[in-house]
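Predict the 3D structure for this chain.
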Amino acid sequence: MIKRLFTLLSLIAIAQIAISQSRIKQSINSNWEFHKGAIDGYPANSAKVEWQPISIPHTWNAVDVNDDEPGYYRGIGWYKKILYIPSSDKNKQLYLQFEGANQTAEVYINGKLASKHTGGYTAFNVLISPYLKNTADSLAQNEILVKVDNSFNDAIAPLDADFTFYGGIYRDVYLITANEAHFTLDDNGSQGIKIKTPVVTAETATVTISGNISNLNKAKLTVITDVTDAQGKLVGQVKTAVNSAVFEQSVTIKLPHLWSPDAPYLYRISSKIFVGDKLLDEVNNPLGLRWYSFDADKGFYLNGKPVKLIGACRHQDFNGLGNALPNALHERDIELLKNMGGNFIRIAHYPQDPAILEACDRLGILASVEIPIVNRITETEAFYANCKQMQLEMIRQNYNHPSVVIWAYMNEVLLRPKYTRNSDEQKRYFARITALAKSLDSLTRSEDKERYTMISCHGSFDLYQSTGLTAVPQIIGWNLYNGWYSAGFEGFARFLDNHHKNLPHTPMIVTEYGADADIRVHSTKPERFDKSIEYQVQYHQYYLKTMIEKPFVVGGALWNLADFNSESRADATPHINTKGINTDDRMPKDAYYFYQANLLKKPFLKIGSTGWNLRTGIADANGVCTQQVYTYSNGHDVQLWLNGKLLKSQPVEQGVAVFDVPFVDGDNSIKAVGTLNGKVYEDMATVKFKMVPATFTNTADHFTDMNISLGDNRFFVDEKLQQVWMPEQPYQKGSWGYIGGKVFVMPDHSRQSFGSDKSIYDTDLDAVYETQRTGIEAFKFDVPDGEYDITLGFAELEGKPAGPALVYNLGGTEQAATTAQRAFDVSINGELVIKSLGTQNYLQAQRAYATTIRVSAKNNAGISIDFKALKGAAILNAVQIAKVY
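Done. Predicted structure below.
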């Protein structure tokens, strides 16, 4: 026992010595300070400005991208930290590693410029040893100052995009302490080691390990690489004497465990540098053994088997945090994708946190990674050089991830072309884009001969063909939105067939497809642009079915895994692109359940109708209101129970079973039951239903309130106020509704059949206020006698508000106010209550105006709200009635 204890202590001591002699990498995210804005005479005057304590990750745009003021801060921010360096490290090589700072960074150590970096989405290492204080103090204090700038810069991609360019040091920062001999930290932010798998079969795998070593003392070194399996068993080892800065090794593994989405088996490669028996450095990498190919007729093959790639694109921000996320939230997104049944991620439109690909390796998600050349380019050598450097950094830093199968480098680059259409200038511009694509593609293939290259294009097939861009990469991605930005789902299938016909030798992936859905909006008659949860499900039903039916389609990445911030977006959810199948705080929408029902191999059953557990509707003759409830399952049928009684059994079609449910007033208990693989599964939900009477006869005792949205057919759920807005209806005697007018449609005869697509200021109810009835004559409630509060809601939807130039956005110019000229009187029960309401007073463009009026209903006359147009047409966006007594 004593001997075993002595041996154990000896091993611990040896391990501690080995650790102390190898590199140490530790995060230094705490105890930073931040100053927003420039510092005159920087960095010498840094002590004269106010500093705010913060922690990394950090962005200065977490709040201003969501306010009502157009634009967000794009400028300079400064970060400061005191670094305490022990005197024992004076002979070490010390580096700072920044995983991401957007979009340019200058690093100062003790007032001296140590490094600069361009590009906000790749990591960079900074050697700081030459700038550290050389003192006898046991812990020397060294000041780090980092200047970060996210100003628009026409030499740096992205120039323009449908996402927010957050500023800040928004990913982790590390201090790396290395010996004088170490795997290089000066290779474009990489580990200095490259793992290749030139031969992989079911019987054998050949693994090569190569890299560069920084060897300041020119010592005679040995590199030993161990390959261990998932249980820690050594399965291969190679030892190489190194006489130069470059080394290469090879290991053969017999009967390898293959990596795949179903079985993401990872080996571990540990590479060590020794001088004699002394360990100087150690770097570890995952190893996933797989082989794959893309075929223009048959799609994607992994380890000799066909695999349809179905997954999602992903942006890196989160509600309330901007893009400054802890690793746990990055990892959670990949878990969301895996739990959906997905096997593919398009990391768009830029390289993301290292935690993302680490999770993909571990969970079995195949990945495409790209640099952010989006919408357009700048025709300068500086822009081209920065793009190439981004591509190089992306590949070098992420090369060793087995999940990565595609390197991409452009997205919808012809979406907003410069110059007059078909002009000579535009033709030269297109030629320069194609030349840049060829340059990037050549660079990529020289760096990595195993993976494939890809460009993602918007749905203008002839344009990309005519410019020659479709001939450059090995795979073409298409971002297609038939049924959303263009009418009709059917165009999607036609487009896919057209690609296969005209590019028969080029594999194709649907790299984007999606429809906006506001989790608060529901419709019993879903239609394009209504942003209802129900329309989004219909959209994805068609797209998934079509892609699966066509074997030549490699797969698809839906847009998007989660809603994300795009500050310039103006809509019912201002600043948010809501095409996600999860909200921006990762609450699943019905479309997420739809994919689970279609992709998961384990049993799945879920009651959907996300966010619609609070409902309202009009009672029928039996005192119930029938509305649809969506359920999702990968079984054959679903039983639905309502308030303890079997309602119906319904077959499942493409993962969906829809039930017509007769809700009663109050709480309704719903249970879905399904039998899958011989086992019974259940899901429960409670729907709180507020019944609205069809007529107001004998309702004096139980009628309380109702909320009506004019000009659309949607329901809007306000969870915060526990209110549900219901669609308008024409007036019938004894009931309620509007008289006269028409549904507002934007004057430009847009693709939207109702309402505005602009943000409405001074309200959280944008979806309610962006629709209206124009030319309305009256709105009547034939309610019983009593006291009522009537709230009228208005918003001027024609025209636009005045706004400043968007200083921190792209080339903004001051926006002049424009508006329709209108004025009208509002009377209630014959009494004038609002005189000459119009654009000369309270009705400002795109701004909500609401007023509440106490009204007495007398003599069984109910309440009549009358509108008299004085100039232009009278309007009404919303009306609420609440009984007081």
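The longest helix spans residues 424-447.
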